[in-house]
Amino acid sequence: MARTIAVMQPYLFPYLGYFQLIAAADVFVLGDDLQYVRSGWVNRNRILHNDEARLITFPLKKDRFQLQINQRQLCDHFSDEAERLIRLIAESYKEAPYFAQVMPLVERLIHFPQPNISLYAEHAIREMCAYLHIVTPIMRSSDLILGSPVDKQERIIRIAHTFEATTFITPEGGSVVYDRDHFARNRLLVRFFRMNPVEYRQFRQPFVANLSIIDVLMFNCVEQVQQMLTQYRLDKHPPAAEPGVLARLTQHPEPVSTLSNRIAVE
Questions:
Q1: What is the pTM of this model?
Q2: Residue 254 falls inside a structural domain
Q3: 264 assigned to some structural domain
Q4: Stretch 253-257: mean pLDDT, rounded?
Q5: Domain interval for residue 147
Q6: Of residues 183 and 251, which shows the higher confidence score?
Q7: Which residues lie across from 30 on neighbouring strands?
Q8: Which 3-state string (H, E, C) describes 95-160?
Q9: Does some domain include residue 155?
Q10: CB of 183 within 8 A of CB of 191?
């Protein structure tokens, strides 16, 4: 039985906090059947280029706005775009201390022969998790039988109940979306996740934060990144809902350990 669950859209080469969230959960669900948002992070991210954050984009075919993420495709000429992206990343990080170890992995992931952006991003996420020894099971929401949830909250509740989860972990931005009282009435505790400030040595100061996991790996060995995966907080004092409801859910709160048990350490 899963105790904690996290749900996120499939992002390409996301920032460190995304992988912290995966490692913190007992089950991680990719929301591949959610609507694609052009301004989101499904097919773009940021790297360090000339000591500044630079946006990189994996272009998609033009299509209907209403399509789900798993219905969107990479552009027809993506092989050319892939070479351009690889050259840009290589040029940006060729002097990084772990370039020789990380660049072949990045190049292999960018060349992965899958036009569906959801499956393409999922493959990269799984491979990055394997590289970091994160062993949390990763599922797709499109593979679950959820019926027709009326809203985002009901969708999460149904996903959680599918895995018999008692706790839903979500980034703190979800505090404006998710009603803790409503979740508590449905036997689910919501805990908001926040990444601690994490800094590491880049080429120069000042430090440029919240870049793609590519940046983290280029400047840190696997053991250092594994330690960074534990640098987060889960709020500890959720407000009370109905008398006794949250109390029962929090009788055995899960602490944030100094080393997540979803990270296999060599």
A1: 0.89
A2: no
A3: no
A4: 40
A5: 4-249
A6: 183
A7: 8, 140
A8: CCCCHHHHHHHHHHHHCCCCCEHHHHHHHHHHHHHHHCCECCCEEEHHHCCCCCCCCHHHHHHHHH
A9: yes
A10: no
